[in-house]
């Protein structure tokens, strides 16, 4: 048997017990407990009422009582099927009571135990079935109550009471079910929106990193173009084939620059403007520390004068920039240590801050854009390094990045690595 798209989950959901997906554990067994109590309490009561008060045969009364009460347990899983059995048994009981000539002072067509069980059944129906089914159930109940009431032998009629109570039960339970469905769908949408927000943030950070790396790579490509294009003038006596090779290199480099500019145009959005200043590196980190100190955060900076690739210097600068910005936002006035070291194989960036001496009464920023750590991780990942960022036991925060200097850029060429 094959299932249409979305049909199988719906069928499986309808096979589950009522309130099986409730958030609180104590709510989940509640339908079973109510159904069990109703069945145990109403079964002997119904037998006694039908046989002793209304004069039905004991065997017939027992059979009808079983049909009216035991299906309440089935109603926890399949309330509509239980309704078919109970509703048919209630109508059959009313018709049989007409033949035994009961006291006109007794309630008819639905004795009190039947009304109690039927209202409980309607609550189960309202928690599971859609509006159209609930309306049809209520119309069938009203038709039975009115139809049987037309042939009432002058006894106290209970058809109207049954119609009113069943309608109230169906309405209340249906409203509760729809409210739960709205909350569930809202939670699902919030989860999806949060995932999409995280994905969008990641893509924006990758585009921003790509734009910055473009400037670094473009600088080197420009140098290659100039050196290859002027080789014939700077180096005398070059063979013709060597001159052609240099000319080919210069032409290829110029085409590559043009492609990079077109790529950069794709990565830019309407709010992004071209950056004319050179991309910062290790030599600019000291200025970050000074600016942060002027903002009221004491910064102890250990500089590094090593000659590292521009991409590594740019990544180190951005990591320190974001880390210090987070200190200013979330731990104003906290003492901070910034160090950048290089041992020939690794460029290590370390930013550690203590707890804020005077914690702010309220967050300085409402909401979290999530760009900080996302951007740090992406820069480190592209360079094949590692990032360790997290809170410290004393209430501070630590950001440690290690960037290998001898590993090629870890940039996917097919664009599929977007997890």
TrEMBL record:
GO terms for molecular function: kinase activity. Residues 315-406 form the Histidine kinase/HSP90-like ATPase domain. Gene3D superfamilies: 1.20.5.1930, Histidine kinase-like ATPase, C-terminal domain. Residues 205-270 form the Signal transduction histidine kinase subgroup 3 dimerisation and phosphoacceptor domain. Keywords: ATP-binding, Kinase, Membrane, Nucleotide-binding, Phosphoprotein, Transferase, Transmembrane, Transmembrane helix, Two-component regulatory system. CDD domains: HATPase_UhpB-NarQ-NarX-like (cd16917). The chain crosses the membrane at residues 30-50, 56-76, 83-102, 108-127, 134-152, 158-176. InterPro entries: HATPase_C_sf, HATPase_dom, Sensor_HK_TwoCompSys, Sig_transdc_His_kin_sub3_dim/P. It catalyses: ATP + protein L-histidine = ADP + protein N-phospho-L-histidine. This is histidine kinase.
